[in-house]
């Protein structure tokens, strides 16, 4: 739009400038014709330029008076006879010296040979041309006429004409620039007002993009305002289409949430119902082992396997039930928990379960306290230690490090085992995710330990992550810091800072 207006302004301005140029030159040509007529007419007086040339009297009369007064100064009137000296020159005011001289009369100033040569070379008889004579003189409009057998050069200064052209060009340019500025400002205002509904549509889409849609119940209430859904406009069509898409996505999210709730409820109900028969199976297996009757070795082995698998199944059911409760958003206890004491207890339990590993503690001088469910947070550390014990060979070193960074408490479990496969790391906290091919397994697991870690930490408004390479795996848990607890006495807080095996 601005480009089109610019081109249009340049065309109009150029046309006006060309028309003015033509008009001014036509006026100058008319003046030259009038001057030629005055020179070619009969003389009316005896005053003239000294010399035998018959044009003396005519030239003197032409520059002294006329129908409109004295001839304009700065003009050029030169007669160049064949074989004679030039007559005339540059018209200039005459200095009044005698009573015969009248105010307003003019006289001639001779032109230099260079100027005369320029006149002869630039224009021919019965032609007109714009000539620059150099020196301090302006550009001239020159006409050559044949009068009484002599060549007469008539010139009028273009100074005023050129000044007029420059003034008009500057004025036209200012008008064009001003018009473009006004048009640009007005166009920007119109475009801004026209696109304002699109801004509201984009704002709605931005708010939707910031919603958490991957889990839980999602209330997709954001919609484009009705005023921006007019199907008669392009923006309205976009807004209406976005609303239809949001309706479709909202229905899909509601269906997904309903399905998830059904699955969670089923898992919770099944886990709850399985606890009783599993307890019965374990009880009967224990009773069979305690029987006074002699049991064959094969049957005793089978009973031991039944009891072992019943325990494993019970642990799996308990984990599933815990995850179902966490997914349902069940409130957790909100107590002050000393993570240093929790790390000591969990490491002691891990040492008892895995005496073949080296267990180390790296604790700060002051307690690190968070607000949360102590039992669940203990389970987080215990699961991380169990994961390290299960997936590293005997002789590996596992270090539990507790500290704080800014407003967060940090727990790290570091082992020097074989590491985790790179393709497993992104899904390590998913349920039943396994990376057994890269990490040694001395015992089976349910595949839910790290999922429980992630769920418990998330329920405490924290974060958990993992970094792994061959020779080092680091699990990092970050939790919001709580108020500092009362510092326990030496008897209440056992020292366990040296490596234990």
UniProtKB/TrEMBL annotation:
Reactions this protein catalyses:
ATP + protein L-histidine = ADP + protein N-phospho-L-histidine
**Single GO molecular function:** phosphorelay sensor kinase activity
**Major subcellular location class:** membrane
The UniProt entry, under Gene3D superfamilies, shows: 1.10.287.130, 6.10.340.10, Histidine kinase-like ATPase, C-terminal domain
Per UniProt, residues of the HAMP domain are: 192-254
Swiss-Prot/TrEMBL cofactor(s): a divalent metal cation
**What keywords sit in the KW lines?**
Kinase, Membrane, Phosphoprotein, Transferase, Transmembrane, Transmembrane helix, Two-component regulatory system
One cellular-component annotation, GO:
plasma membrane
Subcellular location as annotated: Cell membrane
Name it. Answer: histidine kinase
Q: Which domain of life is it from?
A: Bacteria
Q: Where are the transmembrane segments?
A: 165-191
Domain (Histidine kinase): residue spans on this chain: 269-483
Q: Which CDD domains match?
A: HAMP, HATPase, HisKA
One of the Pfam families matching this protein, by short name? HisKA
Q: What is its EC number?
A: 2.7.13.3
């Amino acid at each position: 739009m601005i480009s089109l207006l610019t081109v249009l302004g340049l065309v109009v301005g150029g046309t006006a400038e060309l028309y003015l140029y033509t008009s001014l030159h036509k006026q100058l040509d008319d003046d030259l014709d009038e001057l030629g007529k005055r020179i070619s007419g009969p003389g009316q007086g005896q005053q003239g330029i000294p010399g035998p040339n018959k044009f003396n009297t005519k030239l003197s009369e032409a520059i002294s008076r006329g129908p409109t007064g004295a001839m304009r100064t700065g003009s050029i009137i030169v007669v160049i006879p064949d074989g004679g000296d030039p007559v005339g020159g540059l018209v200039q005011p005459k200095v009044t010296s005698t009573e015969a001289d009248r105010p307003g009369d003019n006289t001639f100033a001779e032109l230099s040979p260079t100027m005369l040569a320029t006149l002869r070379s630039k224009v021919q008889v019965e032609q007109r041309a714009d000539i620059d004579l150099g020196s301090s003189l302006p550009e001239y409009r020159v006409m050559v006429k044949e009068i009484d057998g002599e060549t007469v050069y008539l010139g009028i200064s273009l100074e005023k004409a050129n000044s007029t052209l420059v003034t008009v060009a500057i004025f036209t340019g200012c008008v064009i620039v001003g018009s473009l500025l006004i048009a640009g400002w007005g166009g920007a205002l119109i475009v801004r007002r026209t696109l304002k509904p699109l801004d509201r549509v984009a704002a709605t889409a931005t708010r939707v993009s910031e919603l958490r849609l991957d889990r839980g119940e999602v209330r997709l209430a954001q919609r484009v305002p009705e005023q921006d859904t007019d199907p008669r406009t392009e923006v309205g069509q976009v807004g209406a289409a976005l609303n239809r898409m949001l309706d479709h996505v909202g229905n899909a999210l509601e269906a997904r949430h309903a399905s998830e709730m059904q699955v969670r409820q089923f898992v919770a109900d099944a886990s709850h119902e399985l606890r009783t028969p599993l307890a019965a199976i374990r009880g009967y297996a224990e009773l069979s082992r305690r029987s006074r009757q002699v049991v064959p070795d094969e049957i005793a082995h089978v009973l031991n396997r039944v009891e072992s698998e019943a325990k494993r199944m019970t642990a799996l059911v308990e984990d599933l039930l815990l995850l179902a409760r966490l997914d349902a958003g069940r409130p957790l206890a909100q107590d002050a928990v000393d993570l240093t004491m929790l790390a000591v207890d969990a490491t002691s339990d891990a040492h008892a379960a895995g005496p073949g590993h080296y267990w180390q503690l790296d604790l700060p001088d002051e307690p690190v306290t968070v607000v949360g469910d102590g039992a669940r947070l203990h389970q987080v550390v215990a699961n991380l230690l169990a994961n390290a014990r299960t997936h590293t060979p005997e002789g590996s070193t596992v270090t539990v490090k507790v500290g704080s960074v800014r407003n967060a408490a940090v727990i790290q479990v570091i082992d020097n085992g074989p590491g985790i496969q790179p393709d497993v790391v992104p899904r390590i906290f998913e349920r039943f995710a396994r990376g057994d091919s890269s990490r040694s397994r001395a015992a089976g697991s349910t595949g839910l330990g790290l999922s429980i870690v992630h769920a418990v930490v998330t329920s405490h408004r924290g974060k958990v992550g993992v970094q792994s390479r061959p020779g080092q795996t680091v699990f990092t848990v970050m939790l919001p810091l709580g108020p500092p607890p009362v510092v326990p006495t030496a008897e209440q807080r056992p020292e366990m800072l040296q490596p234990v095996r």
